[in-house]
Amino acid sequence: MCPVEGEDGGLCRGQAFCSKWEAGMATFCKPFTKAAVKYFDHANIEDARAWIQEA
Q1: In-domain check, residue 8
Q2: Which domain holds residue 28?
Q3: pTM above the 0.90 mark?
Q4: Predicted pLDDT at 46
Q5: Residue 36: inside a domain, yes or no?
Q6: How many Cα atoms within 13 Å fall on the side-chain side of residue 35?
Q7: How many domains is the chain built from?
């Protein structure tokens, strides 16, 4: 979920904006942790769940 508050009070200004922000944060965080960090687009929720189960 995108943490950027939209003008209507919702949490997202648009799916494209949120996806870019989230993917950027996943890339940014990698050098600061030994944990596995991977971004999954909302359309790939099943892939994300499978990745979590692998851990």
Answers
A1: no
A2: 15-54
A3: no
A4: 92
A5: yes
A6: 10
A7: 1
Mean of pLDDT values over 1-26:
60
Report the C-alpha gap between 42 and 37 in whole angstroms.
16
Residue 9 lies in a domain: no
Rounded CA separation 16/23 (Å): 11
pLDDT of amino acid 15? 53
Q: Decide if pLDDT at 53 tops 90.
A: yes
Separation of alpha carbons 52 and 19, rounded Å: 19
Tokens 């949120």 found at: 18
Closest CA to 13 of 2, 25, 26, 28: 2
- Show the tokens assigned to 32: 């600061």
- To which residue do tokens 């030994």 refer? 34
Does any domain span residue 45? yes
